[in-house]
Structure formats: structure tokens, C-alpha cells
Design goal:
Length: 494
């Protein structure tokens, strides 16, 4: 993704197809860049503000045609709202990006005022760089604004006025590319994104990045590891499972800590629910049940590009969950990699099964602390909706580190309880654990509680992204920025 910066703040000197200028709510009299654009356009900005056509509300975009008075053919007045946070700045950027894409813009310039905080400029620039993306691979004819086979609408973004130094602009470009990759992996139809294909795409991420390496474990290796929980889910599908293991090893001289961050992502490439089959309405969205794994794979490329100075190991268990004559059945008991036995009372609670083995493997491969991301429960969507992901943790300091990373990046996480009082919900009458409770309560909590038993005592956080990673027909790329920022924060631990 091409993002650059220039110190030029004069709109008459900024070469772009579209010039984007943020507008607060209420707009008031034009100041800074708005005033400069207003003067160049003969008071047009002031006029549309007076007429109430521009309110500055988050996501509102007003198009002004410059008719040759500026190099850019259009100016987009993008509302950021009243007292905006980073999320609002990013939303404004995404809204402007979609308008620019539909106008066929190939070069988009962002001009924010000199008093705008650098983090806010970065958030809006990331919004511009990701907001226009859409999957066009499977269309016979490209839509307006199409720029590539897998994704379309990605413009060259220029941050004007010195709002970002060149290194930060490049980081924005790398971040946007990683977010868009995660979205592509998650949105690709499941017949084109099987566990084996996902592993192949992970290998492509590693290629050309010297700090990254990859191992892909197949059925023979998983059997030797006694990964019975992952194999149980996979046994119902004709598609063999994979456990994708990626490592970021910065040069020894560059490492700043002995910590090794583990990232685990759920990679169910299609989830029918198995024998406990889901309702047919909306089941096509279950191709995105691997959004957590997609975010982890994309984040590893970003971590390498940002040269994060700590070691990171990523584990993505990948499988389909299908009903068949060989599928696991309610009441079956399986033994996980750590030796614990699990009674399967609901085959649609498969994500926690594959994560169980992945968490154990990640810890045994040397992770000193682990964060997993998974589209795990509908219960978290009922509880807190699509704004925040649910955040559960076994270690207060690490949980706070993840929460702060979410606030910084806009991948917001809301802390949830893991009280011992929830322990009975994961008890089984015939095994060590049950994968689902009979009581209809605290569904997201007991799913997280189940996972904790497979973390080998490491400081651990679980991020339930069911509401934030899958929104309608589309994937958001949630978790890529979060994972990269957590890695950078872990690198600063002593």
C-alpha cells in the first residue's frame, strides 16, 4: 500500500485527484487548511457551512468541485465529529476513501491542520488507505475504481502539510496493506480458502521477509503431537487440517527483551456448526470464522515490516467444521494435546477446541505470554455489540497492556470477568472439561474460561472478535493493528 508524506500545506501546490480536509462538528468559521481551500474556491466552503450542507458529523463527506481553481479536481470535506477520538478520525478517512474510489481517484491527499495530533492524522490516513478496499477477485467484470485482482479501490495516499514524518507514513502503508490482506483472507469464499490454501497464503507472507519463518503441520505431525482437539473438529471434513506456525526472529543485536510473544488465531475456514448445525440463514458468512487467524497471519507480516525488536511466534489452527459420517458427535470425548479430556456437548463450540491445542503448542514452543484472537461466541456480540471486542485475561498487567494497545490503535477491547465462580460452567460429568455449558448464561465468559486451562500457566489474553471482525457481509481486519502494537509494547518490557 503506497502512503507518502509531503510538507507542502498549500492546497494550490498539492498534486492529487482528490484533496481531503477534515471538518469538526460544529464547523464554525473555516480555519487553517479549510480557510485556505475556502479562499481558493471563492468562499465556497463558507457557503456550504452556512447553508447547513456541512455539519462535520462523523462520516459525512461533502464533495466540492474545484473547476480548475485547485490542482485537485475535487475537495472532500470529511466530518470527524465533536471532540473526536482515533476511531472517529479513522471512520472519517474510510468514508472519504469510498467517495474518492467511486470518483475514480488514484491519488488522494489528506490535509489536516497544523494543530492536529499526529495520532489522529495517522488514524485518518489509515482510514483513507483501507476504506476503499473491496474484494473483486470473483467478479467477471471489474467495478468502477478497481485496481487489482484481489482487492480494488486502493489509492496512493499523500499526507500533506507535514502531519506525518516519512517513516510513519511508510508504517501507515504497511499497516493498511496488512489490514486489507486480513480482510481478503477472511472474505474469500471457503472453496477458495481451505486450510491448505490458507497455509499457502501464509507462506507468501513469509516470502521476502528475512525475519520470518514458517512451519506447516499436517495430519501426521498433529497425530504425533496428540492434538486430539484439533483433529476431532477436522475429522468431519474431507479437507485436511493444518497448524500454521510462523516465527518472527529479529536479529539478536536488535532484541530488547527476552520475552517471546505468542499470537494464536482461530482458523475455521468454514463453520457449519457440525452435527449441531447452524441455521441456514446467513451461514455463508461463516467463511469468515477464520478472521482471527487471518488477522494473526497478516499481523506477522506487519510485525516483520515494522522490525519489532522482540521474538513473536504465531500459531493458527486451520480446519473446516462439517457434518458427515465421520464428524464428531455430541457426547464424544477427546484428549487434547496437554492430556486433558474434553466432552463435546455442542459441536458448534469448535473454536475453543482447536484453540486449546494451539495455545498449548504455542506455550511449549517458547511463548512467555500469549494473546489469542477468535470469532468465538455470539454471546459477546449480544453483550457488547460490534464496537468493542471482549477482552479476557489471566494476568492483570498483560490484560491492561492489551487494552491500552486497543485504545491506541482503534481495535477497541473491553475487559470482561474471569471469576472462579464461572468454573462450574465448564465441568463435565464424564471428562475433565465440557466444551459447552447447559445453562444459557455467560457464554463468552465460560468459553474464555475453557481456554485458560490450555495456556500452560503463561500470562494470557483472549480477545473475542465475533462482533468486531465480522460485520455483515464483510471482514474488518480487526486485530491486525492490535497484535502489532501489543508486540511493540512487549518489546519494551524488562
Amino acid at each position: 500500500m503506497d502512503v507518502s508524506s509531503t510538507r507542502t500545506a498549500d492546497p494550490a501546490r498539492i498534486r492529487a485527484d482528490v484533496l481531503v480536509v477534515p471538518v469538526p462538528s460544529p464547523p464554525g468559521d473555516p480555519e487553517g487548511p479549510l480557510a485556505a481551500v475556502d479562499a481558493a474556491l471563492g468562499g465556497l466552503v463558507s457557503s456550504v457551512i452556512r447553508d447547513g450542507e456541512v455539519t462535520g458529523a462523523v462520516g459525512q463527506v461533502r464533495v466540492l468541485h474545484t473547476r480548475g481553481d485547485l490542482p485537485a479536481a475535487r475537495v472532500l470535506l470529511a466530518g470527524v465529529g465533536e471532540d473526536p477520538d482515533r476511531t472517529a478520525w479513522a471512520a472519517a478517512g474510510r468514508a472519504a476513501a469510498r467517495v474518492a474510489r467511486d470518483a475514480g481517484a488514484r491519488r488522494v491527499a489528506l490535509l489536516a491542520g497544523p494543530g492536529t495530533e499526529r495520532g489522529d492524522v495517522r488514524a485518518m490516513a489509515e482510514g483513507l488507505a483501507t476504506g476503499a478496499w473491496r474484494l473483486d477477485t470473483f467478479r467477471s467484470k471489474p467495478r468502477r475504481g478497481a485496481t487489482g485482482r484481489t482487492g480494488s479501490g486502493e489509492p496512493h495516499v499523500v499526507v500533506a502539510g507535514g502531519g506525518l514524518p516519512p517513516a510513519m507514513a511508510r508504517a501507515v502503508g504497511a499497516t493498511a496493506a496488512a489490514v486489507n490482506l486480513a480482510r481478503e483472507l477472511a472474505e474469500t469464499p471457503s472453496n477458495h480458502m481451505t486450510p491448505r490454501i490458507l497455509a499457502r497464503r501464509a507462506r507468501q507472507v513469509v516470502r521476502g521477509r528475512p525475519s520470518l519463518s514458517i512451519d506447516v503441520l499436517g495430519v501426521p505431525e498433529l497425530r504425533r503431537l496428540k492434538a486430539g482437539a484439533l483433529l476431532a473438529v477436522a475429522q468431519g471434513s474431507a479437507e485436511p487440517p493444518r497448524m500454521i506456525v510462523m516465527r518472527h526472529r529479529p536479529p539478536r543485536a536488535a532484541r530488547t527483551t527476552r520475552e517471546v510473544l505468542g499470537l494464536v488465531g482461530k482458523g475455521v475456514t468454514f463453520d457449519t456448526g457440525g452435527i449441531s448445525i447452524k441455521p441456514s440463514a446467513g451461514m455463508e458468512e461463516m467463511k469468515m470464522d477464520m478472521a482471527g487467524g487471518a488477522a494473526v497471519i497478516a499481523a506477522m507480516g506487519l510485525i516483520a515490516d515494522l522490525e519489532v525488536p522482540t521474538e513473536v511466534i504465531a500459531v493458527v489452527p486451520a480446519t473446516e467444521n462439517m457434518p458427515s459420517g465421520t464428524a464428531m458427535k455430541p457426547g464424544d470425548v477427546f484428549t487434547a494435546m496437554n492430556g486433558m479430556t474434553i466432552e463435546v456437548t455442542n459441536t458448534d463450540a469448535e473454536g475453543r477446541l482447536i484453540l486449546a491445542d494451539a495455545l498449548t503448542y504455542c506455550a511449549r514452543q517458547g511463548a512467555t505470554r500469549i494473546m489469542d484472537m477468535a470469532t468465538l461466541t455470539g454471546a459477546i456480540v449480544v453483550a457488547i455489540g460490534e464496537v468493542y471486542a471482549g477482552l479476557f485475561g489471566s494476568d492483570a498487567a498483560f490484560t491492561e497492556l492489551v487494552r491500552e494497545a486497543g485504545d491506541e490503535t482503534g481495535d477497541l477491547c473491553w475487559p470482561m470477568p474471569l471469576h472462579p465462580g464461572y468454573d462450574p460452567l465448564v465441568k463435565s460429568a464424564v471428562a475433565d472439561l465440557s466444551n459447552a455449558a447447559k445453562k444459557r448464561q455467560a457464554g463468552a465468559v465460560y468459553a474464555a474460561r475453557f481456554l485458560r486451562d490450555f495456556t500452560e500457566g503463561r500470562p494470557w489474553c483472549h480477545v473475542d472478535v465475533a462482533g468486531t471482525a465480522m460485520q455483515g457481509d464483510h471482514a474488518s481486519g480487526f486485530g491486525v493493528r492490535l497484535a502489532a502494537d501489543v508486540a511493540q509494547r512487549v518489546a519494551r518490557l524488562r
